[in-house]
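Work package 3, deliverable 3.1, input record:
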Amino acid sequence: MQKWAYTKRGYALAQSLSALKRRAWSSLSTLLVFGITMALPALIFFTADSLSRLGASTVSEESLTVYLKLQTSDLDGAELARSLSTQEAIRNTQFISRDEALAVFQQQANIQDALNVLGENPLPGAIVVFPTRQSLEADTIETLAKRLNALPEVDRVQYDLKWVKRLQSLLNLGRSIGWVLAGFLTLTALLVIGNTVRLELLRRQHELEVSHLLGAERSFLHRPMIYSGILFGFLGGLVACLISLVTLKWLGTASASLASLYSSSFTLGTPGPEQLFLVVAAATLLGLLGAIAALYQPSSHLLPNRR
Amino acid sequence: MIRFEHVSLEYTPGRFALRDVNFTLADGSFTFLTGHSGAGKSSLLKLITRLEKPTEGDISVDNIDYRSLKPRQEPQLRRQMGIVFQDNQLLHDRSVFDNVALPLIIGGYRLKDIQKRVNAALSRVALQHRAHDEPVLLSGGEQQRVGIARAVVAHPRVLLADEPTGNLDAQISAEIMQLLMQFSASGVTVLVATHDSGLLNTFNFPRLVLKQGRLSAQSVSAVNTGIQHQYHTEEQI
């Protein structure tokens, strides 16, 4: 044994590492099973950000049109637009004066005769309100519309939530399916680690019994199993990250060519170091929990003389 | 010192492994624990090592009263004892050195102390030159000597040996006995469980003779020179 292995913790780590090394093939297959199981939740986690960015960019041009009362002057309208742009949930505003509205209207329809009959510009001034990305939710937009409608200068507010609602429903459904799948797969990963630790307990029963007779405390007997669980979790997390990165790279090419057909700049982003760290940390935690579960129930009978 | 006072062990109602056992073994004594298979030798050793709890009676080892012992203190108690097993119970996935070092790692000793003590223990059983070999490469006698080195490496005050010569020939058995006697001479209380009549005839040490869970009258048949032994047999009670 290495020098560091002659301490209680060093001994436990050395035993866990040597068990991994001694049964290299079976350890590798366990790591692959764990890694593959963890890869799908990791992929969901990595792509969630890209998909939400896709959602946000799709609805980023969503806006509310606030029609002002006819008696509201252009000066007041422009001032209102400026004041609205500083308010919560509003990213930007664009004031359209009555004359600008008329000019646009005239370009789009040949109504000069009708206007001549009316004698004056019948169109009101308007403010186009662009909500912030965070506010692009049906409920928030409805609240914003009500707030705008209550203003004295405002005649009515017009908006279309159809796309927002559709996209949100799709994203919510995808998120729910993702969570359910992630839950099942996490449970599977937990069972994989639990079974691995139980097998390890069986393999090491002789050593555990001898150590128990030599005066080992429960923590000394448990520690190598706990470390094995953590090791499997940590290494499995790395495998999961590797599988996810390869998959993302492969999917990235396909998604980019699909996006180009829709003139979209959408890409499946590569996960950052924080995201990779989170996946490895979560897998390590799962390894620890799996080992604890295996040690306490229902494997307690595998440990010597637990009175 | 090991003291048993009216100790009984009942595994299931009416089935006694030990019944009203009384004896006191003085510090540094060497005693045989003998009797036929099923007489209760292993049960008695399990009581000393606290792997079993008596149904009745009091046990104390080195003035530690087992009645006041909490479960979390039991590992500490076992660390103060050395145990030699019949089949040596060595771990074959590590070297002789690492086998002997195990009680010290469990006890939380520093590396420097571990090296010093393991080398000294292996030297006492004349196996220092095999320190880095795997146990499987050693003969039966050598393996048992490694087992003894492991039992004494933490300098226990009590050494329990369960059939330590069970699988060994007469000459090697005698060597093992000489080793155990050396430890007894250095102040360790040694209790050797055996039913090897050859060994019992060759070495004239006091005996605790168990018959169907009771100490028999033969228990007072031998007296170790210079060391006081006090036995209470069923006949005396």
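The longest helix of chain A spans residues 218-261.
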